[in-house]
Amino acid sequence: MSATDPITLFTEWFAKAASTGIDKPNAMTLTTVGSDGRPDARIVLLSSVDTRGFVFHTNYQSRKGEELAHNPAVALVFWWDPLGSQVRIEGQATKTSAAESDAYFAKRPRGSQLGAWASAQSRPIESRAVLEAQLRECEREYDGRPVPRPPHWGGYRVVPQRIEFWQDRPNRLHDRIRYERAADGGWRTLQLSP
């Protein structure tokens, strides 16, 4: 772990995870905090990463979207078991631009696009049959034409303040390196005891 920039190091670790055949190396745990102060965690998929942060997409009206509107502080965790590697990220989530969300939505499979319209994510439904009927209605509505991005669906960018890399080592003497955002926008590096 010698990179001075944690995004560069993350990109290297991510590429290694992807090259080993790990199913969904982009799967990450996203933890938010509700208005009641309780943490809430779920798996989401990383859409992209660059020097600005880590991007994922979801329904803005979902439970996570409501929690992010209340408190944008989040944590992300990647765990790549075959490599014995973990990356933990703490930061603030902000919505990506409409243009960025439109571009990502346009690349999604048509079924996923239609599902974004059919599902009122996190809301109770009467039955699976109701959800499937809503999907059929969306299929009829957009038959033969492109599916536009719903206004309630888009991206969030997690702007990192801390990124910690953990690598399994024998005898529980793991490597832990934490990068913290410095006042000048650069990164401060700390080696942590396992």
Write structural notes for this entry:
There is one protein chain. The protein is of the alpha+beta class. 28% of the residues lie in helices and 37% in strands. It contains five helices and nine strands. Strands 1, 2, 3, 4, 5, 6, 7, 8 and 9 form a nine-stranded antiparallel sheet that branches. Strand 7 and strand 8 form a beta hairpin. Helix 4 packs across helix 5. The longest helix has 14 residues. The chain is elongated. It starts with 5 loop residues before the first helix and ends with a strand. The mean pLDDT is 94.
Report the end-to-end length measured between terminal Cα atoms.
Answer: 15 Å
Largest sheet: 9 strands, antiparallel
Mean pLDDT: 94
Instruction: List SSEs in N-to-C order.
Output: HEEEEHEEHHHEEE
Proportion in β-strands: 35-45%
Number of E-state strands: 9
Helix content: 25-40%
Give the structural class.
alpha+beta
Unreliable stretches (pLDDT < 50, length at least 5) are: none
Radius of gyration: 19 Å
Tally of separate helices: 5
Tell me the overall shape. elongated
Spell out the key features of this protein.
alpha+beta; nine-stranded antiparallel beta sheet; 5 helices; 28% helix; elongated
Please write out the topology.
Elements: H1 6-19, E1 27-33, E2 39-45, E3 48-50, E4 53-59, H2 63-70, E5 73-80, E6 85-95, H3 98-107, H4 110-118, H5 128-141, E7 153-167, E8 175-181, E9 187-192
Antiparallel strand pairs: 1-2, 1-5, 3-4, 4-7, 5-6, 6-7, 7-8, 8-9
Helix pairs in contact: 4-5
In short:
The protein contains five helices and nine strands, in the order αββββαββαααβββ.
